[in-house]
Amino acid sequence: MNKIALPHDAFVFVGDGRKALFLRNEGDEKYANLVTVRVMAGEDNPPSRDQGTDRPGRAFGAAHSNARSAMEPTDWHEIEEHRFAERAAQALETIVRERGAPALVIAAPARTLADLRRCLHADVKAKVRAEIDKDFTKIPVWEIEKHILG
Predict the structure, then answer these.
(1) CA-CA distance, 55 to 96, in Å (whole number)?
(2) pLDDT at 54 > cutoff 60
(3) Half-sphere CA count of 70, side-chain side, radius 13 A
(4) Taking a C-beta distance cutoff of 8 angstroms, is the pair 42, 84 a contact?
(5) Helix/strand/coil for 89
(6) What is the pLDDT of residues 57-74, one digit of tens each?
(7) What digits encode the pLDDT tens for the residues 104-132?
(8) Domain covering 11-44+76-149 assigned CATH 1.10.3720.10 in the classification
(9) Which candidate, 116, 103, 106, places its Cα nearest to that of 21?
(10) What angle do the packed helices 76-99 and 110-119 form, to 10 degrees?
């Protein structure tokens, strides 16, 4: 990956469907220094098997047929991850706008990246310098800095 030039006061968002880190560059483009501005953690999101107790529904075929088929079970865990990404996108927009961030880098797994792309408004999307399809939520900030900024 090419080195990303991140100006002073630019933001790095690191997240997945359960945790989000909002990091700001206190350094400059040459000597970046990422510091944590905010951490968001989702509520406890147990696996779907622990959240839903009903059996999947059944659908009937044509009116003249007795054929039935099972419906896909609801994935409550995945739904909550999408909701968390929406809340994280709102928080990211607020921070970027209030702080007048000159640039933004987003690092998240593919599904979370897709949710963020769908949720972010055009003015915030315009500040995105790079999108990185990786989950860095479980590593320390100094290591995130090394991975993202080279």
Answers:
(1) 43
(2) no
(3) 6
(4) yes
(5) helix
(6) 555 555 565 665 655 666
(7) 999 999 999 999 999 999 999 999 999 99
(8) no
(9) 106
(10) 60
